[in-house]
């Protein structure tokens, strides 16, 4: 059985907790819940550190635990609404107020469309396109093979485009 010192685990927590929290927050859209689930992730990791066999990176192992903890939470709460972009807007001094508003509206529409997709599509889009993880890292986190990540990403993007077109058409009918 592997034993890890509290100092080593604290270093692990300090290195990865913000990334884990960010991923969970994108799925649950609630700061307190994301904080709780992040803590649950690290508690589970600490209790099960002996199961980490080094076949994957520690980072992807932690992400997989956080994904499982979050999915368990979502199943229990039956939450299907995931996140809102307003909290992720980054303003630049070089943008005009109109540009900021237009970019914010476009990004909000994009994230609302992502929320309409099935969970596997949401996860792969978050990991690959928002968190910018590699195909290999995404495969390890989702416990998929790399080919499935590629195929699902392609399908998720196609479904997202379709959802955006549907939204665009329904907005044109209103006008």
UniProtKB/TrEMBL annotation:
<comment type="similarity">
    <text>Belongs to the sigma-70 factor family. ECF subfamily.</text>
</comment>
<dbReference type="InterPro" id="IPR039425">
    <property type="entry name" value="RNA_pol_sigma-70-like"/>
</dbReference>
<dbReference type="GO" id="GO:0006950">
    <property type="term" value="P:response to stress"/>
</dbReference>
<dbReference type="Pfam" id="PF04542">
    <property type="entry name" value="Sigma70_r2"/>
</dbReference>
<keyword id="KW-0238">DNA-binding</keyword>
<dbReference type="GO" id="GO:0016987">
    <property type="term" value="F:sigma factor activity"/>
</dbReference>
<keyword id="KW-0805">Transcription regulation</keyword>
<dbReference type="InterPro" id="IPR036388">
    <property type="entry name" value="WH-like_DNA-bd_sf"/>
</dbReference>
<dbReference type="Pfam" id="PF08281">
    <property type="entry name" value="Sigma70_r4_2"/>
</dbReference>
<protein>
    <recommendedName>
        <fullName>RNA polymerase sigma factor</fullName>
    </recommendedName>
</protein>
<dbReference type="InterPro" id="IPR014284">
    <property type="entry name" value="RNA_pol_sigma-70_dom"/>
</dbReference>
<keyword id="KW-0804">Transcription</keyword>
<dbReference type="GO" id="GO:0006352">
    <property type="term" value="P:DNA-templated transcription initiation"/>
</dbReference>
<feature type="domain" description="RNA polymerase sigma-70 region 2">
    <location>
        <begin position="12"/>
        <end position="78"/>
    </location>
</feature>
<dbReference type="InterPro" id="IPR013324">
    <property type="entry name" value="RNA_pol_sigma_r3/r4-like"/>
</dbReference>
<dbReference type="InterPro" id="IPR013249">
    <property type="entry name" value="RNA_pol_sigma70_r4_t2"/>
</dbReference>
<feature type="domain" description="RNA polymerase sigma factor 70 region 4 type 2">
    <location>
        <begin position="109"/>
        <end position="160"/>
    </location>
</feature>
<dbReference type="GO" id="GO:0003677">
    <property type="term" value="F:DNA binding"/>
</dbReference>
<dbReference type="InterPro" id="IPR013325">
    <property type="entry name" value="RNA_pol_sigma_r2"/>
</dbReference>
<keyword id="KW-0731">Sigma factor</keyword>
<dbReference type="InterPro" id="IPR007627">
    <property type="entry name" value="RNA_pol_sigma70_r2"/>
</dbReference>
<dbReference type="InterPro" id="IPR000838">
    <property type="entry name" value="RNA_pol_sigma70_ECF_CS"/>
</dbReference>
């Amino acid at each position: 059985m592997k034993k890890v010192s509290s100092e080593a685990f604290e270093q692990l927590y300090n290195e990865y907790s913000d990334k884990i929290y960010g991923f969970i927050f994108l799925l649950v859209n609630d700061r307190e819940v994301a904080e709780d689930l992040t803590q649950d992730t690290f508690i589970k990791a600490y209790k099960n550190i002996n199961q980490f066999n080094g076949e994957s990176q520690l980072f992807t192992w932690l992400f997989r635990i956080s994904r499982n903890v979050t999915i368990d939470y979502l199943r229990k709460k039956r939450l299907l609404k995931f996140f809102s972009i307003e909290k992720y807007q980054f303003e630049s001094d070089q943008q005009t107020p109109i540009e900021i508003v237009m970019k914010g509206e476009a990004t909000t529409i994009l994230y609302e469309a992502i929320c309409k997709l099935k969970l596997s599509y949401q996860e792969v889009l978050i990991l690959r396109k928002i968190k910018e993880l590699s195909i290999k890292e995404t495969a390890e986190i989702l416990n998929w093979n790399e080919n499935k990540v590629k195929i699902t990403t392609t399908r998720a993007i196609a479904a997202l485009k379709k959802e955006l077109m549907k939204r665009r058409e329904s907005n044109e009918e209103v006008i």
